[in-house]
Amino acid sequence: MSSMPVGVVDAESEILAPVEPTRTPGARAKRSRVAFLSSGKATAGLVILVLFAVFAIIGPWVAPYDPNEVTVDLLLPPSGAHWLGTDHLGRDVLSQLLVGTRSVLLVGVLAGVFATLLAILVGVSAGFLGGVGDEILSALSNVFLVIPALPLIIIVASQAPDAGNLLVAIVLAATGWAWGARVLRAQTLSLRKRDFIEAARANGESTARIVWFETLPNLTAIIASSFVSTVTFAVLSQTTLAFIGVTSSSDWSWGTVLYWAQANQALSRGAWWWFIPAGLLIATLGMALTLVNFGIDEFVNPRLRAAGLSGRGLRKQKITPRIGFTAVRLDPVGARAPGAPTAQGSTASSKPPGTGSTPTHQGSNPTDTEAAR
């Protein structure tokens, strides 16, 4: 029998154990993106948002006319020369909307970024600090929750008549971060008691590392939802401020188009092309942001992700008909459990089939019945 060198394993006797694939962070992130994009709502919302972003970037260059160019073609309906008609000064409405898209998205994104950063800073810090620090930051959030954004911006705009988009975005962010901070604080309070956070503390990791590498990745969905909600709030607020004439009327936005249409009585003059396209753009952008938010909710909530909120899960469920307020079971008679009450209120016999199953007529002798059996 030949000896085998130490450390050498016979190929015939080697047993190969199944190797589990290593799940790297990149693979997990890829699976998360695929799961998010599998939602029809999120995909539709993202496609619409990408189209708006493209128009915001190239809008001033593809606009057929200068939005401030005054012509003699006053209040013309849509035609081949002016696809969305003209206003009371002969200015092209389509060019005004294309140029104004950049202003709307710029204010929305800037306000969303500023408000989200403030919400993360205050909410996560309050959740981790606890004690007096938590109380101070929570009180600060409560104060900003009750500050109305619209009157504050009106006051600021009255002091700075030429307030630009940056100032409007800062004021909107200053009044829109508190809701996200409260949600992040509550979630951070829940996460700080989890086992993986306690294990990180036991390993001697610093608080900054725990927050950055352990807590924030688990708050990504909430942060994204807060950002989308703040962008929606900022877009609607900026449009409202432009519509009532608070911001500069020389900076084109969708609200500015509505402002000039309302000031010149476009509705009473029958110039529907002057205000309906701007309203449809506002509604479409709000719908796209809402769809993305719904997609985030489905991605976070397993129940919503399974059902898809599309009715498919409801159609697959067995619905029991109800008579009045009493549920009716559709089980066959033979499937009733022994001793279960019947529809007439009697109790089903617990004897096996063939034993005492022959009905007895009223007034018959039990002895005759046994003889007949």
Automatic annotation (TrEMBL):
Gene3D superfamilies, from UniProt? MetI-like
Q: Where is this region: Disordered?
A: 333-373
This chain's protein is named: Peptide/nickel transport system permease protein
Q: Which Pfam family name is an example for this entry?
A: BPD_transp_1
Which InterPro entries does its entry note?
BP-dependent_transpt_permease (IPR050366), MetI-like (IPR000515), MetI-like_sf (IPR035906), OppC_N (IPR025966)
Q: What lineage does the source organism belong to?
A: Bacteria, Bacillati, Actinomycetota, Actinomycetes, Micrococcales
Q: Describe the family membership recorded for this protein in Swiss-Prot or TrEMBL.
A: Belongs to the binding-protein-dependent transport system permease family.
Q: Which SUPFAM superfamilies match?
A: MetI-like
